[in-house]
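Hi support team,

I've been running sequence recovery on a batch of backbones for a student project. Most finish fine, but this one hangs at about 90% for roughly twenty minutes before it completes. I'm not sure whether the input is malformed or the queue is just slow. I've pasted the structure tokens below so you can try to reproduce it. Let me know if you need the job ID as well.

Thanks,
M.K.
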């Protein structure tokens, strides 16, 4: 029998089958042993350069990019294509398309391309059925939209739900737009839409090592679920409170849309909720994270190569593997809450450092301390924003006063992120 070194016997990977499976899958995928592709790869009879028209349904939220003069990227489930020769064919899978700002922002409040009185605009949201004139993009199965025509939203129940969601997201933008810069940041934190976020704020969050705060993730999900659980306990029994918490989780993901980091947070929450519902022993953090990783790999394999996926799982793994032991070591000697925040931040930063260096070529050590200062401010800002939204829905005349208060907190957050962004980064 081969005896393992003593230090290997204490590695979680050798003691927990879930963790072992997750680590093996991660090594196999990221070492390039196997290639992982989307479950719905785009396929057609014609090459990308031959295609001039796509017909399909939007399956992701439009995201602002710097490509093609500030276009919006989204995914389309393609059902039909037309070639330059005039030949028509069915097609399948998902293609990436880049919409001009003039198309996507036609209904957005305060934008340069906003259509007067909302006439002639196209609502680009998940569920929209579109006909798109296109040309090839930079990469395979990418297309640049030259013109778009809306074909409707369908008449079924789910089609109506998707249309209702699209309208809610549009009205949400219009409400928060009235709060100026604070509304732009709140919109990014609650729905993932960053088109109203100040450029200096986005850059400062990134340069201060705080990009995870703007990315929808477990922090945002826990705020909603925790608030629902608190209200449920006050108003009803624990069972109803648990049901409200689950409903809040699903509603937030439905409204904000599925992103790699947010889907990871939802899977972890659902696993914990299921174990509680079945009266099982509470699983360890690594077990939950590993089970989430394996499920995520099966459901959305295309996410594995995205920066958000790697940083989200890496950060939580760092908190569990590095942050927790450090917190236990120092919590009795220093302020417990401060030690907890610093150890979690340090664990996440240390574990994701190789990923950050590989993807971005630089590392922001100041993020360890910046997160401890800025994260509580953002949490308070989120709670204040949610309270303000509810008050404005009931008493609209309070909107200007609430907007003024939120903008004061926004300037505080902005000044702190700009301050930490001024610290030097480590580059390779």
């Amino acid at each position: 029998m081969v005896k393992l070194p003593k230090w290997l016997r204490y590695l979680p990977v050798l003691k927990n089958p879930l963790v072992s499976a997750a680590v093996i899958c991660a090594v196999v995928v990221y070492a390039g042993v196997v290639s992982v592709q989307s479950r719905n790869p785009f396929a057609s009879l014609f090459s990308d350069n031959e295609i001039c028209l796509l017909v399909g349904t939007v399956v992701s939220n439009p995201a602002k990019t710097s490509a093609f003069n500030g276009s919006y990227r989204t995914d389309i489930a393609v059902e039909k294509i037309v070639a330059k020769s005039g030949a028509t064919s069915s097609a399948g899978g998902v293609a990436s398309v880049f919409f001009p700002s003039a198309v996507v922002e036609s209904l957005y409040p305060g934008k340069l391309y906003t259509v007067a009185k909302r006439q002639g605009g196209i609502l680009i949201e998940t569920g929209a059925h579109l006909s798109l004139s296109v040309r090839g993009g930079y990469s395979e199965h990418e297309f640049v939209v030259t013109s778009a025509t809306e074909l409707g939203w369908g008449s079924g129940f789910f089609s109506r739900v998707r249309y209702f969601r699209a309208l809610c997201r549009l009205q949400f933008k219009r409400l928060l737009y009235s709060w100026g810069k604070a509304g732009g940041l709140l919109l990014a934190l609650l729905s993932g839409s960053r088109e109203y976020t100040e450029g200096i704020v986005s850059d400062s969050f990134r340069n201060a090592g705080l990009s995870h705060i703007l990315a929808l993730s477990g922090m945002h999900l826990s705020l909603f679920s925790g608030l629902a659980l608190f209200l449920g306990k006050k108003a009803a029994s624990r069972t109803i409170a648990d049901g409200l918490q689950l409903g809040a989780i699903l509603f937030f993901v439905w409204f904000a849309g599925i992103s790699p980091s947010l889907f990871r947070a939802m899977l972890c929450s659902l696993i914990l909720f299921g174990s509680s519902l079945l009266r099982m022993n509470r699983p360890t953090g690594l077990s939950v994270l590993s089970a989430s990783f394996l499920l995520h790999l099966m459901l959305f394999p295309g996410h594995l190569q995205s920066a958000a996926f790697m940083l989200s799982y890496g950060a939580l793994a760092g908190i569990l593997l590095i942050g927790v032991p450090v917190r236990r070591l120092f919590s009795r000697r220093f302020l417990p809450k401060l030690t907890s925040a610093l150890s979690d931040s340090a664990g996440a930063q240390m574990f994701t450092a190789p990923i950050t260096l590989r993807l971005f070529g630089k590392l922001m050590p100041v993020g360890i301390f910046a997160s401890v200062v800025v994260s509580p401010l953002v949490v308070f800002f989120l709670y204040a924003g949610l309270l303000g939204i509810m008050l404005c829905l009931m008493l609209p005349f309070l909107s200007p006063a609430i907007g003024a208060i939120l903008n004061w907190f926004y300037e505080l957050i902005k000044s702190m992120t700009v301050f930490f962004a001024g610290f030097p980064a480590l580059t390779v």
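--
Follow-up from support: It reproduced on our side and the slowdown came from queue contention, not your input. The chain has a mean pLDDT of 82. No action needed from you.
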